[in-house]
User: Which sequence fits this backbone?
């Protein structure tokens, strides 16, 4: 079994759906720790990428999230993200937020494109 929502639920930003998916898996009877394994190691094995990611091991990509809490006990703590680390570097999450003033592809309906 794997987890990994590749599209948002209506009203959710891309990437937010995985948290809901994990919570639903716990409601279905898996433990929070099992759910974390389903979304990490199992997902990597499914796509043949277990040598690159999916578990914390020397030589693998350092892609992870640091959260406040104990998601291994309370899976909803995955929503309490403190840091995102991509290939060993902390991501500035503020730069990822949508800003219609600086997004060259954004335009309001009825207004000319930038």
Assistant:
């Amino acid at each position: 079994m794997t987890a990994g929502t590749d599209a948002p639920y209506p009203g959710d930003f891309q990437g937010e759906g995985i948290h809901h998916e994990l919570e639903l898996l716990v409601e279905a009877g898996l433990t929070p720790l099992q759910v974390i394994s389903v979304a990490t190691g199992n997902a990597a094995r499914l796509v043949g990428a277990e040598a690159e990611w999916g578990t914390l091991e020397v030589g693998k990509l350092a892609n992870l999230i640091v959260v406040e809490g104990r998601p291994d006990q309370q899976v909803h703590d995955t929503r309490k993200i403190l840091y995102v680390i991509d290939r060993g570097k902390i991501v500035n999450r503020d730069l990822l937020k949508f800003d219609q003033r600086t997004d060259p592809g954004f335009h309001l309906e009825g207004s000319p494109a930038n």
Notes: Strands lie at 64-67, 81-86, 89-90. The chain is about 20% helix and 10% strand. The first strand starts at residue 64 and ends at 67.
